[in-house]
Amino acid sequence: MSNEEPGSVGPPYFDVTAVPNPSVWKQKRRLADAMRRVIAHMVLSDAPEEELSAAADALERYADRLASHPKLTRIMGHPEAANAGNVAAFFDQSPLIGLANPLAPPITIARSGPLAASATATFGAAYEGPPGHVHGGFVAAAFDEVLGYVQSLGGNPGMTGRLITHYRRPTPLHVELRFEAELVREEGRKIFTEARVYAGDELTAEAEGLFISIPRDRLEGLASRRAKPEQV
């Protein structure tokens, strides 16, 4: 886990070595990365029918092979930063930042000040909306994750109550994007946050997030009621 002091400028907020069976998770991350490559190539591929059929056969066989193995008996850490309760928590399975989740671009986030954070991400062809640009829904989801992280820096984290995204211009694919976010103020249980995303020096979108702090026992109750992995 990260051992950065509050208010320090530190590394990304999860330690990719702090997991049980690190050699196993190393291979999970490797497999997830390979699956990202498959997805990226598949959406653009004009391969012949026989090549696509052979690939589908191989993937179907491997999906059956993975299904034959035991499932995780617990979720590793939390799937998102907003309600983890610890900005150094472990998020390998997150759909947005998880190194072991092929759905994730992934996004990398680090604290840049006492109540601020920076993040980077590169979206490939699988995330395309307007030609050559990121689908607006994924831009909003990225903001939700980055703002979820920064609101937790206040020490009394909550869940998203409102997210407003202002699209200034199309956000390009295949370019490293930079997110800048900060916790602006707190009013009782309300946590107000703001963020921007840049492609180089060009602002492409802005967001305003309102988070509502909720008691820790309610979060624990949600966690206890979620489906166990073996039930999925």
Q: How is this structure best described in words?
A:
- This protein has a 6-stranded antiparallel beta sheet, with helices on one face.
- The radius of gyration is 19 Å and the shape is globular.
- It is of the alpha+beta class and 232 residues long.
- The chain is built from 4 helices and 6 strands; from the N terminus they run ααββαββββα.
- The chain has one domain: Roll (Thiol Ester Dehydrase, Chain A), CATH 3.10.129.
Please specify the SSE layout and strand pairing.
Elements: H1 22-44, H2 49-67, E1 108-113, E2 116-121, H3 136-151, E3 158-167, E4 177-187, E5 190-199, E6 202-213, H4 216-225
Antiparallel strand pairs: 1-2, 2-4, 3-6, 4-5, 5-6
Secondary structure: helix percent: 25-40%
Mean pLDDT: 83
- Total number of strands: 6
CATH top level assignment = Alpha Beta
- Please state the CA-atom Rg, rounded to the nearest Å: 19 Å
Strand content: 15-25%
Low-confidence stretches: 1-16, 85-89
The H-and-E topology, N to C, reads as: HHEEHEEEEH
Question: What is the global morphology?
Answer: globular
